Amino acid sequence: MILNIENDLNRFKEIVKGKVRKDLRRYMSSGEMIGRQGNRRVSIPLPQIGIPRFRYGKNETGGVGQGEGEAGDPVGEPGDGSGQAGDQSGTHAIEAEITIEELAEIMREELALPRIEPRGSKQISSQRDRYTGISKLGPEALRHNKRTFREALKRQIASGSYAPARPVIVPIKDDKRYRSWKTRPEPQSAAVILYMMDVSGSMGDEQKEIVRLEAFWIDTWLRHNYKNVETRFIIHDASAKEVPRDVFFRTKESGGTLISSAYTLAVKILEEDYPAAEWNIYPFHFSDGDNWSANDTQACMTLLEGHLLPVSNQFSYGQVDSEYGSGQFYKDLNQRFGDDERVVTSRIPKREAIMDSIKEFLSNGK
Length: 366
Hints:
By secondary structure, this protein is α/β, with parallel strands linked by helices. The protein has three domains: 1-48 and 95-112, no CATH class; 126-185, no CATH class; 190-362, von Willebrand factor, type A domain (Rossmann fold). It is built from ten helices and ten strands. The protein has a six-stranded mixed beta sheet with strand order 7-6-5-8-9-10, with helices on both faces. The radius of gyration is 30 Å and the shape is elongated.
């Protein structure tokens, strides 16, 4: 019975994954998954999946096609909307859980993303327990049944109490054996994601929502590739400042735009906290492409060329369309770094383009 239940559960999980694959573009362009995260799991609504159930009622007909009416008559009466309020439940979307790891694998398969080969190796280690031997002491949860019964058998044979005709083996306390372990430090690769967002007057709520959605999926993929991921957030208009995650996505600030202020702060954070020899560094900048002047754009190019690009696995720039944004910065970056594999630019005209943008950012496997 338990085996059948597990098989049914596995089949249901495959159905869920199939639904996510089929509608991945829709999920990536909406906020259905965001905000539903638990402990390394995401709850997603799946209205397309119907759960079979028994219905009980009277068997009043004699078979298929029998009863009152002629061929072609409509079944049932159309409603006119004048009925009374009912007391029965309606139909609801089903929510199914999927792990972050499974979600990342679906992303990899559907977007054809290569696995990332970490470059830096931060000098930290996690504590990992490895079972290395057998002990006479330990918790019952780690009891080694095979070794325990072997010791009991040896004792009974030695004492002459073992009867081959009636092979009953009863372990006593001295027979019990337990798995023993050692805790070993295990080095792990680490990454830092540095998000920078233009919050000037031309960046509205819809533009910020696009950034929020794209950041969720980028996080999902990079956390799948690294054991340790840190995120830092910078917002900027004419000046830049580091903010917590919730402020990054909810800020209502406005003003002019000096993109170099964000890059200057990014360089400062990386130099102080994230040595390039130890960390895999991923700066992402999102803007509508407006900048105050050509001089500031030149300052950005200098900061990129001299400071950000040498330490980064990849620098990614995503440009969202806005009613008031000129989009010039995208052109300037491509003109200066169009042949540089360390720089990846992407235009995100609307939510539906998020999936394509992420593929552009992550398809290099850096």
